[in-house]
Design a protein that fits this description.
Elements lengths: L7 H20 L5 E7 L2 E7 L4 H8 L3 H27 L3 E9 L4 E8 L10 H5 L10 H10 L1
Antiparallel strand pairs: 1-2, 2-4, 3-4
Helix pairs in contact: 1-3, 2-3
Length: 150
């Protein structure tokens, strides 16, 4: 018996919670808020209040450039575990991860490029990508409207 697919919103919430947990494990800190948006072959995460205490201390001491270097190095160190965990969770290949942080605002943005859009309930993305015909009662317009409403 197969597990029913999650809706797009449920999958985005699960991914946000997963990133929050992974961030807490890696950096011993939890971002105040994580927003996830699942797009066509990509994921976008926005992490609010994601700057660690050591980075804040460096900024307070006027060492902004060093704080940015630390942030860049932390971001690079985070990518392999993020890639591995997302591939396991989504069952699709992660092709690339792009990330940047703004020390001044405390926000981090992460864009994940996927080999294909993960399956979710109410979506025929995989069938459409693989050139398979859509079900008779589903048109390309219905998919566009449905993705905007989700």
């Amino acid at each position: 018996m197969s597990t029913p697919l999650q809706t797009k919103g449920q999958l985005e919430r699960k991914l946000s919670q997963h990133i929050q947990s992974l961030y807490r494990q890696q950096f011993h800190q939890q971002p105040a808020k994580i927003t996830c948006e699942l797009g066509n072959n990509n994921l976008t995460f926005i992490l609010e209040d994601s700057i660690t205490q050591p980075e804040k201390t460096l900024v307070d001491q006027g060492q902004i450039q060093l704080a940015e270097e630390v942030r860049d190095n932390l971001g690079e160190a985070f990518k392999p575990e993020l890639k591995k965990s997302l591939e396991t969770l989504l069952q699709v290949q992660v092709l690339d991860i792009l990330s940047d942080a703004a020390i001044s605002s405390g926000r981090t943005g992460i864009i994940v490029i996927l080999s294909q859009t993960p399956a979710f309930r109410g979506s025929d993305h995989r069938a459409k990508q693989n050139g398979e015909p859509l079900p008779k009662n589903v048109s390309s317009e219905n998919l566009k409207e449905g993705s905007q409403a989700a």
